[in-house]
Specification:
This protein is of the alpha+beta class and 101 residues long. It has helices spanning 12-21, 39-52, and strands at 31-35, 59-63, 82-84, 97-100.
Amino acid sequence: SILNNCSRHNSISDFNNSMKTISVKNENFSLFFQNVDGNKTNFDSFAVNVHRLQHKFSVIGLAETNTVPENKNLFNLDGYTSYYQDINPTKFKGTGVALYI
């Protein structure tokens, strides 16, 4: 099955070491997903960690951004274009998703 080629990494160094031992090129499709639990408080540390991963993912997905599309320019990742979905207006937290492609 396709899941046989998936792997989980418990640390940034674990991920980077694994990428050195396998033949993964930046033109291969790769996906990174994280529940960011609020861009306002957590995006900067998220962006630093993505940069430390030393891999350009095809797509990065974020959940619980708590950010409206009008504010997406406040949360940039070099080399990516962002697409934000509107947050649920009836919820204060735990809403909104984004894709970086």
